[in-house]
Amino acid sequence: MLDVVETKIKECKETEIKTPSGNAYWKYRGLRFSTSEGVLCWKENETLLFRECNTHSGRWLPESVTCKTRDEPNTFCPNDLLEIMMRNDNPVCLKISPHPHQYDDAYCHGSNVIIPLDLSVPDSDLSIAVTKFLSSKGINRFWLPLKRNDTLPLYKVRLPGTRWSEIFEGSIEIADLRSNKNCLSTIVVHNQKNNSHQNRHTQFINEVTHCNELIHSVCIFRKKLLSRTGCKENFGALSYRPAECYGLEWNHKSRSRSINALNVNNFFEKRNVLQLIFRDLISKSRRNEFFEVESFADEADKVYVVLMNRKEEFKILHKNNDNEFPLISEEIVPITNNLVTMILKFNVELQQLVLIVYNSRFIWRIEEDDENEGVAIFQDAESQEPSEMLTGAFKHEYYRFLQANHTYEDFVNDPHLQMGTFIPDKLLNRLNEISEMLNVTQKRSPVIIIKIYSSDRLFQELSTKKQIVSGRIVSISIPGFNTELPDIVPIALHVSPDEAKNKNDSIELCHYWNFRNWVTDAT
User: Fold this and answer.
1) How many helices (H) and strands (E) does the chain have?
2) Which CATH code for domain 82-221?
3) Which residues contact 443 (CB under 8 A, 6 or more apart)?
4) Chain-centre distance of CA 349, in angstroms?
5) Helix (H) or strand (E) holding 412
6) Closest of 123, 77, 79, 106 to residue 217, by C-alpha
7) Contact 237, 226 (CB under 8 A)
8) Cα–Cα distance between 359 and 342 in angstroms, integer?
9) Is the pLDDT of residue 234 over 50?
10) pLDDT in tens, 449-504
11) Extents of the domains making up the chain
12) Region 259-268 average pLDDT
């Protein structure tokens, strides 16, 4: 007869540790290992502190711990910026040069507020908060991100983006316009009528300045701090550090060598940046998922993974082949000095010089290592598929990538579809076959460039000089291959009910640009 001894699990009791940052709680939630809740505890060597619940004795191991906490300098701004909290609890982020320096065009790239140009009222809350902060740092003069060249008297904004080359409309003395002072600085003057702080008045005096003078730079960032330029899907970067992309990587096997996984220490070093990316750039359906930040082995060589989510909740699970979790990752990408590229080409058919303008901010470049071979755009997408919101002139629109093994029917019947296109497997295989037949041994696999324009501003009818296109404009190119492709490239464009009613022939609803006007002899 076999005796069965029932082993009763003894749960560890909740314990509490007081820290300068608040109370840390250890609670048993059915898992062998736990981190603290309320306040996250760290060891003296800056590694994460976790304890084991011995369910035989009902005691935490180790029984006694020292809880070290991290002090965060900022609540919202990245830690390499300074932070001012306004009276309405809206933070303002500042980048201030540690020392006076000559004018540097690139120092304030990514900032989106120019003081005093952007202040409708000099004594606004923002002005008072910033000038008070600068006064505490002993700064009463700083560069404005404006400059002129030797041939034109106009000072223009030097911040990349929508304000690039915006003309400064402030008053400048005629004598200064004739000088060789090509930069602008501003001087902060505090006028105080009496000893009462309420009567203190701030005045900004703009002054033309030699660009080689030594003056502080003050850059201001409000609200939008992120950029997608150059980053892959579900990744983003700070507007002033666009080469450093951060995000979640789900596909471990196809992960590029340029992508590095971050551990829990890295996360908290870049905490505010990563929280911004989770909030603004990662799709809603995935932003609360748990991701892997650490792993360790116990005395029996069992491997455990430490998981956390954007709410900074932790789980420690036994690792096996069935559970694979996304990784919080960093990728350093090459950034071109100029987003806008202009190419002047002679068009034989038109017998004209044609200026072609490319803006890399609106280009997806799909490499052979990617599974993605196309893209679809949706209006107010409610699909279960992960989608990413577009910015700029694309209002309430989302995109997701398509793969070469898709069929046209996979997306064309979606009621929210605005535009979709992809390069089918059949076409890709034919292109490779042609290269092999011609013994083109050095030809690389096709690189697909898809450009989607939110408006037709670059496509002016030469005869009428009007913009007449109401829908989206898509351009697809495969560099190195002729325009006569061996198979079709499917393109789906949204047609409104009114357009469909007025035009029975689909050929009248599809146009292509021949560098002179929009024509309807597309196939």
Assistant:
1) 7, 32
2) 3.10.100
3) 435, 480
4) 41
5) helix 409-412
6) 106
7) yes
8) 9
9) yes
10) 777 776 666 666 666 655 555 566 788 877 666 667 778 888 887 766 655 555 55
11) 15-61, 82-221, 226-332, 340-519
12) 90
- Is the model's pTM score more than 0.70? no
Strands 241-249 and 259-261: unpaired
Report the DSSP beta bridge partners of residue 491: 421
Query: Which residues lie closer than 8 Å to 400 by C-beta, 6 or more apart?
Result: 375, 376, 378, 381, 383, 385, 386, 387, 388
Please give the single-letter amino acid code of residue 177: L
Please report, for residues 29, 66, 243, the alpha-carbon distance to residue 231 in angstroms, rounded to integers and kept in the order given: 38, 41, 8
Nearest to 506 by CA among 492, 517, 518, 516: 492
**pLDDT on residue 117:** 82
Q: Output 245 or 223, whichever has higher pLDDT.
A: 245
Token output for 219: 């850059």
Which residue pairs from 393-398 have beta carbons closer than 8 angstroms and sit at least 24 positions apart in sequence?
Answer: 393/454, 393/455, 394/454
Q: Are 326 and 250 in contact (CB under 8 A)?
A: yes
Residue with tokens 């060249």: 149
Cα angle value 191/193/198 (rounded, 5°): 85
Task: Output the 3-class SS for 151-213.
Answer: CCCCCEECCCCCCCCCECCCCCCHHHHCCCCCEEEEEEEEEECCCCHHHEEEEEEEEEECCCC
3 state SS of 96: strand
Contact 167, 156 (CB under 8 A): yes
* Residue 330: φ, ψ to 5°: -125, 140
